[in-house]
Amino acid sequence: MTDILLFSVNKVKAVQISVVKNLRSNRLDTFERTEEHFLKDLILLDGRDPEEDEPQFVMHFDSVRSMEAVSCAAKYSLARSLVSLSNSHCQRDLPLTNFDWTYIHPTSVYSNRGDCMVLLQICFYAANLILLLPGSSPRKMQGCLCLLT
């Protein structure tokens, strides 16, 4: 059995958090909603230990719900999504603890462009460094630079 965490926004713009169980039986997947909460009722999102690369986290509602993401990156993606939803739909900062803040609220200009743009910028700078090396010819690199810019 697998628990799946779903976010939904209803007609009155309330964000609902649902825990759905995936029950497999005879090659058929069936889903059962086991818990429902509203984002405004989320008291605290606890990443457990920011120094360790672990996917476990805890959501504090009226009760405490321990969960495990697929990976640590997925846990941080979930936290960024919840922070964004809380800011836009609940008009409040979501209380977080035990998260590395730089991964939740990026401060770099390039980090808000998405991973693909960051990778393109790194490749562009690397190509420029190659051009500056003694003996390198700008003509050899023009095709590559056109693709990166």
Salient structural properties:
alpha+beta, PH-domain like, 4-stranded mixed β-sheet, globular, Exocyst complex component Sec3 PIP2-binding N-terminal domain-containing protein, Sec3-PIP2_bind
Can you tell me about this structure?
The structure is a single chain. About 35% of the residues lie in helices and about 30% in strands. It has about 150 residues and is α+β, with helices and mostly antiparallel strands. The protein contains four helices and seven strands. It has two domains: about 1-105, PH-domain like, CATH 2.30.29.90; about 110-149. The strands form two sheets. Strands 6-5-4-7 form a four-stranded mixed beta sheet, with helices on one face. The radius of gyration is 21 Å and the shape is globular. It starts with a strand and ends with a helix. About 10% of the residues are buried. This is Exocyst complex component Sec3 PIP2-binding N-terminal domain-containing protein. InterPro entries: Sec3-PIP2_bind.
